[in-house]
């Protein structure tokens, strides 16, 4: 039987879905791509199918992920971008050789230079990160209000007032935490 790994949290923005493969960075961190095969699985559900991945390629992916996280966090805080993170993102973007393909149905697909080229897939993710960090897309980078998460996410809501990276996980967890805190504050006699 195949080992059970943490599920993926998929969002509509490629770069921040990717940074979400490590969640609860400020709490009990959950690594959602713990093995090369799990990166292969994640890329497949994100339209970047590769047929294999080496341990070294997984390392490159995680290095890119943490660089995007660092740069996006700085951008959300309107701080200077960390030079080392920018360097990694640019390297991955420059070394990817994926082509955007228009399907007959009018959808965009990515064509990698070869089926084993994880670097091409990482190039697409790096370019996506560049587009949101550079402010090229309609939306705003923000940080999740959950203290144990603080993930950078891309807020495309009309009011740009989203608080949590993911309503179903961080939003609900915060609501529950607040509920329990309120319960504790009530006097003992009320129990
Ligand atoms: Zn969150």
From TrEMBL:
The name this protein goes by in its record: Zinc finger CGNR domain-containing protein
InterPro entries per record: ABATE, ABATE_dom_sf, Znf_CGNR
Limits of the Zinc finger CGNR domain: 141-182
Pfam families reported in the protein's UniProt record: ABATE (PF07336), zf-CGNR (PF11706)
Origin: domain of life: Bacteria
């Amino acid at each position: 039987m195949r080992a059970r790994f943490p599920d993926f949290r998929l969002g509509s923005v490629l770069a921040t879905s990717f940074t979400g493969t490590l969640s609860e960075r400020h709490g009990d961190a959950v690594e959602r791509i713990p093995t090369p095969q799990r990166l292969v699985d994640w890329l497949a559900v994100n339209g970047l199918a590769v047929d294999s991945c080496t341990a070294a390629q997984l390392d490159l992916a995680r290095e890119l992920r943490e660089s995007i996280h660092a740069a996006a966090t700085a951008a959300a805080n309107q701080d200077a971008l960390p030079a080392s993170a920018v360097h990694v993102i640019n390297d991955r973007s420059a070394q990817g050789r994926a082509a955007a393909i228009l399907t007959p149905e009018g959808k965009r697909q990515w064509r990698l230079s070869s089926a084993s080229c994880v670097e091409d897939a990482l190039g697409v993710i790096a370019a996506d990160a560049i587009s949101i960090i550079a402010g090229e897309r309609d939306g705003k980078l923000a940080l999740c209000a959950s203290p144990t998460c603080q993930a950078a996410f891309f807020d495309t809501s009309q009011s740009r007032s989203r608080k949590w990276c993911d309503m179903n996980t961080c939003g609900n967890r915060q609501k529950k935490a607040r509920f329990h805190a309120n319960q504790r504050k009530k006097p003992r006699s009320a129990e």
